[in-house]
Amino acid sequence: MKIAELLRETLASNGVDTVIGVPGGQTLGFYHALSQSNGRIRHLTVLDERTGAYAADAYARATGKLGVCDGTVGPGATNLVSGLAEALNSSSPILAIVSELQSETIHFSEWGTASQGIDQVELLRPVCKAVYAVREAHEFHYMLNRAILAALTGRPGPVAIIIPMDMFETEVVPPRLGSISTSVVRPARSIADPAAVADAVTLLRDAQRPLLLVGGGAVGCDANEEVLRVAELLQAPVATTWTGKGIIAEDHPLALGILGNAAGYPGLEDAAKAADLIFMVGTKSSQNSTYRWTIPSIGQKVIHLDVDGMETGRVFRTDVSLVGDARLVLTQLADALTGSAKVDRPEWRAKYSDVLKRARVELGRQAALDFVPIAPQRVVDEISKAAAAQDVFVCDASFASAWGAMYYSIKQAGRRTIFPRGMAGLGFGLPAAVGAAAGRPDASVFLLSGDGGFAYSVQELAVAVKFGLKVRAIVINNGSYGWIKHSYSARFGGDLAETHMPRFDYVAVANGMGCPAIRVEKPEDLAAALRTAADASGPFLVEVITSAEESPIVSHRGKAADPYKAPADPYAVTENA
Predict the structure, then answer these.
(1) What does the radius of gyration of the chain's CA atoms come to, in whole angstroms?
(2) With 0-12 CB in 10 A as exposed, 13-18 as middle and 19+ as buried, what is 361?
(3) Are 326 and 216 within 8 A, CB to CB?
């Protein structure tokens, strides 16, 4: 058996059905092996290794399975960096298969003495959970198994395996029956220390105003039922980070929505400050969801649950650290809480219910804006109405993510939204929608992207057409880099010419790639256009001409605190945080 064939069989036996990437001269051995898979593994050929990594990331987030991408030696590897960095900071399980120079010429990598040579291990190490460079044929299968396990277990993340081009066609002895390659690798899941669980239960029972702050780690292990069970037992409201959006249906009376100084629901900062205990679940204490590290404050009790023991207590003083799988640990907590006296916190319920009511009134008012150019808030609200409960909503970075987080309503808990919060880089949206659609053919994938972000990866629309993917791309075209435009105005006053973009004709671009498209310039035309997009059998693009004057970011509303600057003391609550 050749190494390329062993790679194919190991991927297939570990549940991989899709590989995403761009062919290169040094990966042809692998591509030939994939072509002989008898339909078990399809290759989704994209037009840039960077977008391939983004697509693999979204595939993993949408399905809960291992995402796999490939890249050829040198420029293919350098192109992977942005996508792998996003996956690393978002804890997405990806296997990146990267080819290398021929074994006998690897030592000529320095300065590209051998064509396309570069130290790929050092290149990829900062953006990967682990990097495995195969140098001998006999070590390949061990390294591949290690790479798959590393990507999936503990805190998930991207892992690269680098394989010399000649080694793909090297013959090796197939592994014996019963080895790891013959059974699907499942992430090892662990419960928390029972003593820590007991301490957490005591704090939760004693709290008068508990609040759950749930992040992407809970969504990643499908803990939505367990989060709801604990919240209902405690009668505690559930706020989420951007990546935690989807953990609870947002029409539930305990669902508070997004917490944060960027794209946070109006008034939720007051509710978070009023809590006497914050239970953080699967969140890395990022600057946005903690209002620039001011919540939790020094007077609030903190319980932090995370699969990564290095995460709990890393940023905030933590009263109880729970290390384990969110779904299993929440089950531990729920079982311990069940049977105790029924919790009733009428004053706390009245407080957060009032905040939520006022937030929804304000969001509803903004979503109904009917001016021209169209308000982005209105666009997202109409997308939310057009999407079915099981559909997936993907956002590009910048304002598209913020508008989407605030105004897209989750009808059914689950893996429903994908945001590029790892690196927040423009260009994530369209390839992510392609990856999500490849993994979820049962659903439509609605993409919200600004014109700036869409320009980064517009070529992938042709990939959606080629594979007949149900991507509904909504481009909010305001002719500017919105976040940068408003940040400049808030910090320095006036306008910056460099933030202006030409208004591309994305309808013409889409049509040129074989994708049907329509332009919308009046708010009353949005609903019909989105219904047409939702009903399409393949990809469809809706270009919406939107206002450049609207911003979802609190710090853009006048001279406010610098959103990029951390307070000197993480527990010091600052003005305009």
Answers:
(1) 24
(2) exposed
(3) no
Is residue 276 domain-shared with residue 312, that is, in the same domain? Answer: yes
> Structural domain tally of the chain?
3
Q: Does residue 417 sit in helix, strand or coil?
A: strand
Alpha-carbon gap, residue 510 to 508, rounded angstroms = 5
pLDDT, tens digit, 9 for 90 and up, residues 43-85: 999 999 999 999 999 999 999 999 999 999 999 999 999 999 9
The DSSP annotation for 239-299 comes to EE-TTTTTSS-TTSTTEEEE-STBTPPTTHHHHHHH-SEEEEES----TTTTTTTTSS-TT
Question: Exposure pattern of 488-515 as b/e (b: 16+ CB <10 Å)?
Answer: bbbeeeeeeeebebeebebbebbeebeb
Q: Is-above-0.85 flag for pTM?
A: yes
Query: Predicted confidence band at 575 (pLDDT cuts at 50, 70, 90)?
Result: very low
Task: Report the CATH number at residue 271.
Answer: 3.40.50.1220
Q: Quick count: other Cβ atoms within 10 Å of Cβ 117?
A: 19
Distance CA(295)–CA(301), nearest Å, equals 11
Mean pLDDT along residues 371-393: 97
Query: CB-hemisphere CA count at 13 Å for 439?
Result: 28
Structure tokens at 1: 């058996």
- Tell me what the pLDDT averaged over the chain comes to: 91
Assigned domain for 106 exists: yes
Asked if residue 170 lies in contact with residue 184, where contact means CB atoms within 8 angstroms, the answer is: no
| First CA to last CA distance, the chain | 60
